[in-house]
Amino acid sequence: MTLGKFRGSSRQRWLRGGIANSCSDFLNVTFFPGLNKVMPLKFAKPIRRKIEKTNRRKVKNAHIARTRQLVLKRDRRCRACASTVFLEMHEMKSRSQLRGKPPEEIFNSFNCIMLCSTCHRQVTERIIKVTCPQCGHEW
After folding, report:
1. Helix (H) / strand (E) containing 11
2. Strand, helix or coil at 119?
3. pTM: predicted TM-score of the whole model, two decimal places
4. 3-state DSSP: the chain helix, strand, coil percent, rounded to 5?
């Protein structure tokens, strides 16, 4: 079949039985064989999974940033050595223990403290133990 005998846009050629030249010829229409009719789609196109994951990640990162600011405002220095440089947020209950819960439950001011980078590494490696001043619970 030659394309020379068809005139008009590629969409018109496709509707008349010609060959479509690009993917855009097939978007937003459904062709029913047996019917010589093009019907527009009657449902919304679903949001792609990649876009959903990106949106969730943005919301989570924004929540972590807000929590970090609250904890920094509350603590202002390292809870272990009172240093004011290289401060990092440490979660008392680890993310792996709270897996599957929403970020609001993992990252909140009750579960997080500020530590300097040296103390944070030592707490993570379990060289230093962090205890709650009110109840004496160790993490």
Report:
1. helix 10-15
2. helix
3. 0.60
4. 35, 15, 50
The b/e string for 60-83 (b: 16+ C-beta within 10 A; e otherwise) is: eeebeeebbeebeeebeebbbeee
Share of the chain above pLDDT 70, in %: 67
Residue 77 pLDDT greater than 50, yes or no: yes
Burial bucket for residue 113 (CB in 10 Å: 0-12, 13-18, 19+): buried
DSSP of 43-78: SPPPPPHHHHHHHHHHHHHHHHHHHHHHHHHHH-S-
* Cα angle value 98/104/109 (rounded, 5°): 90
Taking the CA atoms of the chain, what radius of gyration do you get in angstroms?
29
Judge contact between 63 and 98, C-beta under 8 A.
no
How far lies 90's CA from each of 25, 60, 72, in Å?
54, 16, 11
Question: Could you read off the pLDDT of 20-48 as tens digits, one per residue?
Answer: 444 444 444 455 555 555 556 677 777 78
